[in-house]
Amino acid sequence: MSCSGNSRLTSGDVAEQCCRNVLNELICTEEQYVEDLINGIERYSRIFRRRSTLPPGLVGQQHVLLSNITEIAALHRHRILPLMLHHRQQLELLFERWYSLVERDFFYCYVLFVANQRNSLHLYHSHELYFKRLQKPMGDPLGIRSFLLKPVQRIAKYPLLLNRFIQLFFEHRQGISKHVFTLACRLEKRLRELLERANQSDQLNDIKNFRVSSILNEAGFVTMGDFQLIDVTLRRCYTCKLFAFNTCIIYTECKGNEQLLRGTFALPDVCFVAKQKSFLLCNKQHECEFLCPLALLKKWESIVHRLLEQCVSMAIGDVAKDTKHYADDTSGQQQVAQRKSINRTIWYTM
């Protein structure tokens, strides 16, 4: 049956029929991905249980080698794959709920995985002969290196598949609702941004004496940008990278392949000042001017504003919790004082 051959078909029916091949590819590859992750985790977790045959350099290093791949497997096994199977004939609901999971940061596990991948692959290369000897006995002809690359390959595949959906929707736009087309575009954009965010997290490994894994478990990584920086404290200009987390913003100086940590702006105690071709970040200890084009300035203005709003929301939430425990006049005065404190520490200048 052609996509436009039956006028009684609903928009959802037309969308499903036009994209059947792409949808089948999405679901089949998702099923294979989940199976590969489960088998790989079982296969390579097993070697750490046989400590007597384990090289000394691998003892106690399972968390480095496999990182958080178990968390990724659980996400796809219990959420993503069931979502695809349940809504395979309801693309609007599939895209809508998938988008919601991305927005609620369920895919942050990929940011953590990519940030740790450099250490994981370094550990693999340090024991490459050992792992190659295991391939045949374990029934894994591709080996563990291929397994360790699967999550990055999968997250990079999603925007490509979504783009094929979008192309088909556009070709058959007369029979497809604008809403499903918009949802697919929004999801594809969010997945591209997720991939970019994950790739950026790898650059945290270039910062000298920076404990990447422990920092990322305590503070969520948001984004990174490249700038020319006028450092008022050091009284000089240099090329820098600006890394935003949900609890702080750090800036580094680029020295060849290394990054030297130069300063931290703890949130919410930071002021953002937008200028014509730059913006200022400052607090009571630091003042830095980041030179950039207008589009990048607007992007970082939005990022900092959003981070500060999140800090305010969390602080007010804490105050609200406190008021449940203290209902007398004294606690009311404490609440006012806390709110004033919040207002004093949130500086945001347009």
TrEMBL record:
Q: Which UniProt keywords apply?
A: Guanine-nucleotide releasing factor
Q: Which GO terms describe its molecular function?
A: guanyl-nucleotide exchange factor activity
Give residue ranges for domain DH. 18-201
Matching Pfam families: RhoGEF
Q: Which Gene3D superfamilies match?
A: Dbl homology (DH) domain
Q: Which InterPro entries match?
A: DBL_dom_sf (IPR035899), DH_dom (IPR000219), RhoGEF_Guanine_NuclExch_SF (IPR051336)
Q: Name one GO cellular component term.
A: cytoplasm
Protein's recorded name: Triple functional domain protein-like
Q: What organism is recorded for this protein?
A: Drosophila hydei (Fruit fly)
